[in-house]
Amino acid sequence: MTKKTIAVLPGDGIGPEVTRAAIKVLENIADLHDHEFVFQEGLIGGSAIDEKGAPLPHETKELSALSDGILLGAVGGPKWDHLPGGNRPEKGLLEIRKSLDLYANLRPVKAYASLIESSPLKEEIVADVDFLIVRELTGGLYFGEPKMREENEGEMQAVDTLVYKTSEIKRIAERAFQSARLRKGKVVSVDKANVLESSRLWREIVDDVRGGYPDVELEHMLVDNAAMQLIAQPASFDVIVTENTFGDILSDEASMLTGSLGLLPSASMGSTGVGLYEPVHGSAPDIAGENRANPLAAIASAAMMLKYGFEMEKEAERIEAAIEKVLADGYRTADIASKSEEAVTTAEMTDAVVKALE
Ligand code: GGG
């Protein structure tokens, strides 16, 4: 029997609903494979601000650092939109990534065969979509200093800074090349090197790192072109490595190739050995508490925790196969249901996945 402690940070909006779904699936996998998963809940985001006055209370930080893996839901919502940047729900997410040095955010984008025909794009374009976005997660525009507002010549101005050190680019590039070796062997590095100095350094370092991976193909692509190619020929991508903000935007765009943002999982890995696993989607406050959210991204994130965090490959594959099965059997939450299809609830989709595990 393998025992693992999992920190569960449901967060805001639909976060609690989708993490509950992921826990249910993990409990069933634990029974089926004779593991023991101990779930310990912590506060993050807006709910943490409401209860503790801070988006990442120190108890949550401690709980997370001592766990074997962190399962997170989503943070944010209009209730906290008026707060200053330093105390918004999203600050909790950024702080936990930084405090655990979770610099590599892996976002797989794969078209499920049974959803291809309902894609808004042509079938031949999305049919073979299967790539991995490696988003740098603890640097770039999200974290660069100075980040502030100030008076300048009688008016307010706001400053964000895009800064990268060589070491930060080097380690994320290493991750991308290592990932490509396990896939189709092709990295596209996305930047804005025709305009940004940080992107010119990014290119140089990625080229240097590539020297250690002569078996991996490398192409540099400007981010505006990458945004277009993701729609024009998405199946040509294998691994995309990019800056924090570019990765955030491109992965939301890429989610539409699969049919819904509600399908995309992620794993954030770093130097401490504790990984954080969360759906790519946000808190969707408009449907929070309505039992309508798609739980598959959270469930697939739990599968990534088993695979990348706990070396439980078989168990992860069992969850992935169950997700494929329920979609093939026609289960559709509202985000992926066509006009003629009846949508199932979050709980019904979760129960269908649990049943498909058997
Ligand atoms: N589960 C992802 C989530 O809560 N997203 C909200 C958000 O603001 N995310 C910013 C980011 O992922 O960088």
From TrEMBL:
Enzyme Commission number: 1.1.1.85
Pathway(s) served: Amino-acid biosynthesis; L-leucine biosynthesis; L-leucine from 3-methyl-2-oxobutanoate: step 3/4
NCBIfam families recorded: leuB
Gene symbol of the encoding locus: leuB
Enzymatic reactions: (2R,3S)-3-isopropylmalate + NAD(+) = 4-methyl-2-oxopentanoate + CO2 + NADH
Source superkingdom: Bacteria
Cofactor annotation remark: Binds 1 Mg(2+) or Mn(2+) ion per subunit.
Organism: Salicibibacter halophilus
GO biological process: L-leucine biosynthetic process
Localisation per UniProt entry: Cytoplasm
Keyword Heme belongs to the record: no
Keyword NAD: yes
Site (Important for catalysis): 142, 192
Keywords: Amino-acid biosynthesis, Branched-chain amino acid biosynthesis, Cytoplasm, Leucine biosynthesis, Magnesium, Manganese, Metal-binding, NAD, Oxidoreductase
Cofactor requirements of the protein: Mg(2+); Mn(2+)
Residues given in the record as NAD(+) binding sites: 77-90, 282-294
Protein name: 3-isopropylmalate dehydrogenase
UniProt-listed HAMAP family: LeuB_type1
Domain Isopropylmalate dehydrogenase-like: 5-353
InterPro entries linked: IsoCit/isopropylmalate_DH_CS, IsoPropMal-DH-like_dom, Isopropylmalate_DH
SUPFAM superfamilies reported for this sequence: Isocitrate/Isopropylmalate dehydrogenase-like
Entry function: Catalyzes the oxidation of 3-carboxy-2-hydroxy-4-methylpentanoate (3-isopropylmalate) to 3-carboxy-4-methyl-2-oxopentanoate. The product decarboxylates to 4-methyl-2 oxopentanoate.
Top-tier EC class: oxidoreductase
